[in-house]
Amino acid sequence: MSARGAHKRWRGPAWRGPAWRNPAWRGLALGLALGLALLLGGCEEGTAPEPSAGFAGLGESAEGFAQARPGTPLRFPEDHGAHPDHRIEWWYLTANLEDQAGEPLGLQWTLFRQALVPPAERPAPGPWVADQLWMAHLAVSRGETHRVAERFARSHAADPTHDGPGQAGAMAHPFRAWLDDWELVTRVDAPDADTFERLTLTAFDGEGEARFGYRLELTAEGPLVLHGEAGFSQKAADGQGSHYYSQPFWRVEGEVILDGETHAVTGRGWLDREWSSQLLGAEQAGWDWFSLHLDDGHRLMAFQLRGGGEAGGEYRSGTWISPEGEPRALAPGELALTPLATSGAADREVPTRWRLEVPAAGLDLVVEAPQAERWMDTTVPYWEGEVVARDHDSGDRLGVGYLEMTGY
Amino acid sequence: MPTALSTLLSHYRRHPGQLVMLLLGLWVASALWSSVQAINASARDSYARAEALFTTGLDRLERRDGQSLTREDFTALRRAGVPVSPMLEGELEAADGTRLTVIGIDPLTLPGDSAFATAGSLSSSPGELTGFLSPPWQTRVAPDTLAVLGVAPGDAAGSTPGLSAGRRLPPLSLSPSLPPDTLVMDIAAAAALLESGERISRLVAAPGALAEAPDGLVLTPATTLASPGQLTESFHLNLTALALLALVVGLFIVQAALGLALEQRLGMLRTLRALGVTGRALVGLLALELVILGLAGALAGIASGVWLAQALLPDVAATLGSLYGAGVGAELRLPWHYWLGGLAVTLGGLLLAGSGVLWRAARLSVLDLGQAQAWRAGFHRQLRLMAMAGGLAALVGLALWAWLARLPPGEGLLAGFGLVAALLLASALWLPPVLAAALAGLAHLARRRPLAQWALADLQLQLPRLSLAMMALLIALSANLGVGSMVGGFRLTFLDWLDQRLVADLYLRPPAERFDEVHAWLGEHPGVAERLATRRSEAILLAAEREGASRRLELPVGLYGITPGATLMPAWPLRETLAGRQAAWSAFAAGDAFINEQLATAEGLAPGDRLTLAGAGARGGARQTLTVVAVYPDYGNPRGEVLLATPRLAERFRAPPGSVGIVLAPGADADDLRNALAERFALGRDSLLDQREVKRVATGIFERTFTITRALNALTLGVAALALLASLLAQARERRRQLAPLWALGVPRARLGHLQLAQLGGAALATGLLAVPLGIAITWGLVAVINVAAFGWRLPLHVFPGEIALTLATAVAVALLAAALPVLRLWQAPPRTLLAEETPS
C-alpha cells in the first residue's frame, strides 16, 4: 500500500496539491444537506449519517459556480474574505497549546461557507432570503476531555460585507470571520496594514459550569504558505482542484475555559483557507489529514484521500514547509502513510497511530494521538485531535500537530 | 356438528325479531363506544402533532412594549451570543376561506432537539435543505390539510396551490406529523407570503437556555405554555365515561335478548343433548354463535361509529379549539389499534353478557323436561344475589367516597368516576329487588281488588325479564338527569359569572406604546364614568407560606391586573375571603392578591397564605411576596391565576399594558366615544369591543362545548328506550297466552290493554322516580368531585324540576310506547288466537 520512496522527483509547480482535505467540508455539505435532512426528515436525533451516503452528496455538479483554476493568482487581502461565487469555503484553525502546568491542550475552530445556488440563480435579496449557508465548529480538548459545539447561519451574497447586519460572514479587510458571537477578528487598527497578521479568536458555548471555549490572540510568525501551484491545489486528474493557502506559523496566547476552570495557554496554531466548487467523487470513502509543527521549525501538511488515487488506491499529497515558510509540494509518490494501530472512539475503530514517511525531507515519523476520544459528535461526525510526532527509529519526540480523519 | 349449529341458528330464522334485537343491541353499543373512541383517538393525534410543533416545547421571547421584533433584534442577540431563533407566524386564507396558520422558521438556528424533527418530511434527500431554504422554497403540510388547499393527495408533492388573494404557496411537501391547517416553511418564504418585511412574531430558545430575558424582552418559559393534551384530558375522560355508559346499556339489551333466545331453545337443547351432542359441544356451539353474532354486530357498530364520529368531530374540534386553543383536525385519523380495540371491547362485552347463558346451557339437565320455565324458578335466589352484589357495589362506592374525602381537593378524577360508576351499579342491581318488594307490598294492599292484584302478580312474574330493561332505563335516566343538571347548572353559573365579570360597556385595546396617552384622554372624556385598566403577565409561583411553614411549588401562573373601582368591586364574585368582602377589597387595592379557585384547589391554598412569585420579566430573579386575601371563581380558565390591582401589577412585575374597560356615564353614547377615539387616535373600530359582543362570543363557545355531551346523552337515553322496547316485544307472544284466561273469564280486551299499559307505565314510573335521587346524587358527584378534579372549580348544585319532570315523562312515554305495540296486536288479534294452544317453539 505504501508508495514510500517510489517517487523521489520534485514535481515542481505543476504538482497537484491536497485539494480536498477537509472532512469538515464534508461536514458542511453533509451537515447542511444531511443535518437538515435530519432536522427536517424526522430521523432520530444523533443518528450518524452513513459516510458513503454523505460523500455522495459531495459529488454533486458544480455547474454554474466559479471554478478554481490553476494560474489564478491569489490576491491578498481580498482572498481572506468570502468567495460567494464558489460553492464551498472554509477558515479552519487548529492549535496545540500548553497551560501553565505544561499540560497539553488542543483546540479547533472552523467556519464553513456553502453557496446554495450558482451565482446566476441567486435569488433577489429580501427579508431572510439567503443563498449562503454558514456552519461553525468549536472544539476544546484536554486529557480525556473533549468538548464540541456547532452553529449554523444564513446570509445573502449581496449582504453588505462590512460588519453590519449579518449573523455570519467573512470580510477580507479589516479581516473578520464570524458566526454569532464566535469570531476570528483582526487586532490591527492601522487601516493600511496587513490586518491578517494579528488576530483574536473568541468562541464560547454553554452556560454556567458547562461553559467552555476560548479567547486567544494569534500572532503570525511567518508568511502565508500557498499550497500546490501558487495556491491552486489540484485534486483530480481532470484538473479539478481548489484554492488553498495556510498560515502555519501562529503564535497563540490566551485563555481557555473548560470544566469550570480557566487555563492560561500558549502554543502554536495553523490556519487553513480553502475554497472550491467541485466536491468529491462518490468512490472516495474518506480521508486522513495531518498538520505537524516540528520542533526544528519545519511544518508538514500531508493527506491521503482513501479511494481517490489511481486504480482506486489512496491519493496522497502534502507540503513540506521550511522554518522560513518556503513550501515544497510533495507528489503522491513522495509520501507514505501507514496506519499502525486503531483505537475505539465513539463506537468506531479509527487509526490513531500512523507511520508517516517523507524520504525527500528525511522524515520517518510515528504520529500518534495520545487520546483516542476526539470524535466530533457534530451534525456530521468525524475525528479531529492532537497528535505527537516521534522519530520512527529513535522514538525521539519531534513535534506536535493535528490529525483529521473522516469516513470511519 | 354443522347440523347441530344450523339447528341452533334456525331458531333465529323462526324468530327474526330476536336476531334483530341482538344485533341492534350490539350495533348501538359498539357504535357509540367506537365513535367516542374514534373522536378521542383523532383528537389525541392532533395534540401530539401540535405539541410536537415548536410552540409548546420552546421558550418564547417577545418585546415588553408589545411591538414587533425584527430581524435586526435577532441578529443583534445572536451576535451577543444569545441562542435565539426567529419565528414568524401569521394567518392566510385558503381559496375556500379556511384560516391557515403559516409558520416561518429558520431551521439553522432552531434548537436541534426541539420537536421540529417531527415536523419532518417524507423524503430526506441531501438536497432537502437547499430546497427548503432556497426559492421557490417548500411548504410543509400535513396530508389532512390538502383538502382545504384543494389538492388531491396524489398530486400534492410539488404542487403550488393558490390562496384567496391570488397568491400561491411554495411547492408542497408532505409532513404527516404537522398539525392540521398549519403550513411550515422557511422564514424567508413566510415573510414573502405574509408581506411582513423584517418583522418577526417572536424569538424562541431551547427550554431553559436563557437564564433571564435580555433587556426590553419578556421571556415565557415553555412550561408556562400549557399543553393541549393535559388540558383536554378531562374532556376526553368525560366522553369516554359516556361512551362506556352507552356500551353497558347496549349490552343490557344483548343480555336480555340472549336470555330469551336461550330460554326458548331449552327444549331444542335438550333434544340435541338427547340425540347425543355432548354438553361441552353444545356450549362450544353456543359460544361460536355468540362470536358470529358479535363479529357481525361489532363490525356494523364500528362502521357506523366511524360515521357518527365524523358527524360529531367538527363540533368536538370546534369545542376543543375554542376552549383550549387545541387544533384538532376535522378529519378522522385512526391508528390500527383503534379498530382492534373496538372489536375487542364489543366481543368482550358480548361474551360477558353471554356468559350467564353459556353457564346455564352447560348445567342443562337432559331429564328436566317438565320445567320449561326453569329460569324463572331461580329468580328469588337471583334477587338475593343482586341485592348482595348491589350491596357490594355500594360498599365500593362508600370506600371510594371515604378515600376521596381524605384526598386533597382537586385530585382523584378516576376515583370520582369510579364513585359515580359504583353508585350507578349499586342502584341498578338493587332495582329488581326493590321493585319485587314494592310489588309484593302493593299486592298485599290490593287484596280486595282482584284484577289489580292479578296485574301486580303478573308484573311480578314478568319482572325477571323486565328487570334488565328497567335497569338499563334506570342507568340511562339517572345519567341523563345527572349530566343534564350539570350542564344546566354550569350554564347558569357561567352566564351569571359572565355578567359579573363583564361590567364595562366597552373594551378598548390601545397599542402598547400609546396606552398611557389613550388612558389619560379617556379619563378626561365626559362620556366616560370609569376606566378599568387591565394588564397581564406571567410568573413562577415559587413558594407558598402558611403560619410560618413554607412549601416550594415552582409553578407557572398567570398574573392578571384589574382596577378595583365602584363598578367592578360589587360585581366581582368572591368565593372565600380572609375577613369579609370590604376588607378583602381594601387590602386588594393596597397591594394584596386574590387567587382563582383553580389555583386554590390545585395547590391547597387559602386566604391568609403568603405567595412568593418570580416575575418572568427582564429582572426575572426579582421576587415578590404577596398575601392572599380572597379566592374568586374563574370558570373556563384552565390555568392558575393571581389577581392584583393593575397599578400594583405594573410596578411590581413590569406587566405590559393590556386593555381598558370603559364604563360609560349615564346617557353617554358608545358610538360618540367610538368616533371620538377614531378621530383622536386613529384607532380602528376593531380595537373597541362591545360588551354584548364579548358575551355573545363567550356564550357561543360555551354552548358548543356541551353540544357533544348533550348529543351523547340523548343517544344513551335512546338506547335505553330501545332496550325496553326490545324486551317487551320479545315476550309479547307469550304475554298473549297469559292474558287469554282473563279474557276467557270475561275481562274485555280494552281493559286488558289498559291493564298492560298501566303495568308497564307504573313500572317505568317507579324506575323513573328512583332515577331522580340517583340523578341528583350523580350531579353532585359531577359538580363536586369530578369537576373539581378535572377543571379545578366547584359548581353550585342546581336541581331543575322541569328537567326531572321531563325525565320521568320520558321514562313513562318510552314504557308506554314499548307496551303500545303488543297491546295493539292484542287489540287486533282475533279472540280465537288467544284461545289457541300455542305450539312450543
Map the helices and strands.
The complex is a heterodimer of chains A (408) and B (841).
Chain A: H1 23-41, H2 51-56, E1 88-99, E2 104-115, E3 132-142, E4 145-155, E5 168-171, E6 176-179, E7 182-186, E8 198-205, E9 212-220, E10 225-226, E11 232-234, E12 241-258, E13 261-276, E14 286-294, E15 299-306, E16 315-321, E17 327-330, E18 336-345, E19 348-358, E20 363-368, E21 375-376, E22 382-391, E23 397-405
Antiparallel strand pairs in A: 1-2, 1-13, 2-3, 3-4, 5-6, 6-7, 7-8, 8-9, 9-12, 10-12, 11-12, 12-13, 14-15, 14-23, 15-16, 16-17, 18-19, 19-20, 20-22, 21-22, 22-23
Chain B: H1 2-14, H2 16-52, H3 54-57, E1 59-63, E2 69-70, H4 71-79, E3 85-93, E4 99-105, H5 128-133, E5 139-141, H6 146-149, E6 172-174, E7 182-186, H7 187-194, E8 199-200, E9 202-205, E10 217-220, H8 228-264, H9 266-274, H10 279-324, H11 336-362, H12 374-377, H13 379-406, H14 413-445, H15 450-501, E11 506-508, H16 515-524, E12 528-546, E13 549-562, H17 568-571, E14 576-577, H18 580-589, E15 593-596, H19 597-603, E16 610-615, E17 623-632, E18 641-645, H20 646-653, E19 657-664, H21 670-681, E20 688-690, H22 691-705, H23 707-730, H24 732-744, H25 749-791, H26 801-828, H27 831-835
Parallel strand pairs in B: 4-7, 5-6, 13-18, 15-17
Antiparallel strand pairs in B: 1-9, 1-10, 2-8, 3-4, 3-9, 5-7, 11-19, 11-20, 12-13, 12-16, 12-19, 14-17, 15-18, 16-17
Organism (chain A): Halomonas campaniensis
Domain AttH (chain A): 88-277
InterPro entries (chain A): AttH-like_dom_sf (IPR023374), AttH_dom (IPR010791)
